[in-house]
Design goal:
- The protein is mostly helical.
- It has a single domain (about 10-420), classed as MFS general substrate transporter like domains (Growth Hormone, Chain: A, Up-down Bundle).
- About 85% of the residues lie in helices and about 0% in strands.
- It starts with a helix and ends in a 7-residue tail after the last helix.
């Protein structure tokens, strides 16, 4: 009886907000604040694997050829999680999908710690797969901010959710030495230290969403669309099917290519630096700048995407990633400053691609299938990242870091002619 009453109250609350645009605007602002708070912790959880995942694998496996495996594994795990989070969100709302996704990421981080303690390669591989759920959830949280946003607010709303990831994402790599020292003090290998931070951060992010993301913005948006359709205020199919498919395909392509390039170069940069005498603190500094560039410009990027267009900013992403590849290839191995410049450009190019691609996806879907489509697209993004991470180690082992960087820039540049050829964007809803 209690569950029935709780379910009834939940439905009544959703209808209450769906009936009033003003109440939806208030909920939109509150949703953004909740997502922002969760993203601060989510960013810290994400940074651990990026910063020391390859180094931990190198240490445990004893070879450079498979240093891309950690990135490949947690991106493969994020692919499976993206599908599940998208489908759970579509059925039960963002709160359930995102909250459980972050908690799964925390469980994976705990598994990595025990793998390092027991020197278990098998446990490391399984734990990295589960840890990837946090990465997928961290990305999908950007969509929660768009559920109640107007057509000209969507990129800005997604960027608001992302920009605050910077706080945790930048803090995580800069705390590599501190968390490593703490790990050693409790008998854990130093390279597993950042995963202690990751576990706590992901658990906190999940709890914040499960407790505070009420009423659920996606469920309110779906109910508002149903009410409008019943009242004859909106067509049953607000988006032309062909234009919608084209928009989803284009948005997915932008995010897939930028993910491949970013992950490939980012994964091998710590290994490249360690081979040339840089310590963990310097590695953490470079990755901190990189992750800051991935997220900190988001608010400005979102405004630009809404103002000058999705296509123009997607093309800008390709050009920026090309410059990043050239800078990384030409940077002297002992030049910390040049490596920072290259990785900042790499993060910025990824930022342009992710936000413009996200806006294209939201523009091209309706509330009835939006979260499911978003999850499916994020599966492809995660698989692209897994491919980039896996191949990056093999490319560097058989050629060089410079070859990898030039190749990444060339792949990214292919976005520019494709964007210019694409034509007008799909209509907004």
């Amino acid at each position: 009886m209690t569950e029935t009453n709780a379910a009834r109250r939940k439905k009544e609350t959703i209808r209450y907000y769906a009936q009033s645009p003003e109440r939806q605007r208030r909920l939109y602002r509150r949703t953004l604040l909740t997502v922002i708070l969760s993203q601060i912790f989510g960013g810290a959880g994400l940074a651990a694997g990026v910063t020391v995942g390859a180094l931990l694998a190198q240490d445990m496996l004893g070879t450079d050829s498979f240093t891309g495996v950690p990135t490949a594994l947690f991106t493969l795990g994020s692919a499976a999680a993206a599908l599940l989070v998208g489908r759970y969100s579509q059925r039960f709302g963002r709160r359930t999908g995102l909250g459980l996704g972050f908690i799964a990421g925390g469980i994976g981080a705990v598994g990595v710690i025990f793998a390092a303690l027991t020197d278990s390669i098998a446990l490391l591989l399984v734990s990295l797969l589960i840890y990837g759920a946090g990465s997928a959830t961290n990305l999908q949280a950007r969509y929660a901010g768009t559920d109640l946003a107007g057509p000209n607010q969507r990129a800005t709303a997604a960027s608001m959710a992302m920009v605050f990831t910077t706080i945790g994402a930048v803090a995580g790599p800069t705390l590599v030495d501190v968390t490593g020292d703490f790990a050693v003090s409790i008998g854990v290998p130093s390279l597993a230290g950042p995963f202690i931070l990751a576990a706590a951060a992901y658990f906190l992010a999940g709890l914040i969403l499960l407790v505070l993301l009420r009423p659920d913005p996606l469920l309110v948006a779906k109910e508002a669309a149903r009410q409008a359709e019943r009242q004859g205020e909106a067509p049953a199919a607000a988006i032309d099917a062909a234009a919608g498919r084209r928009g989803v395909t284009l948005g997915a392509l932008v995010m897939i290519l930028t993910q491949i390039v970013m992950v490939a170069i980012m994964t091998m940069t710590p290994v490249h630096m360690r081979h040339h005498g840089h310590d963990l603190g310097e590695v953490g500094l470079v990755i901190g700048f990189h992750i800051g560039a991935m997220y900190l410009p988001s608010l400005i990027t979102g405004i630009l995407v809404d103002k000058i267009g999705r296509i123009a900013m997607a093309a800008a992403s390709g050009v920026t990633l090309l410059l990043a590849g050239i800078a990384a290839a030409l940077a002297p191995a002992d030049s910390l400053a040049m490596l920072i410049v290259a990785l900042v450009l790499l993060g910025l190019g990824w930022n342009f691609g992710l936000i413009s691609g996200t806006a294209l996806i939201v523009d091209s879907t309706a509330t009835a299938n939006r979260a499911k489509v978003q999850g499916s697209v994020d599966v492809l993004i995660a698989l692209a990242g897994a491919s980039g991470g896996m191949l990056s180690g093999l490319v560097v082992a058989n050629s060089s870091y410079a070859v990898l960087s030039y190749a990444g820039g060339a792949i990214a540049l292919a976005l520019v002619p494709f964007m210019l050829w694409k034509g007008p964007r799909p209509a907004k809803v």
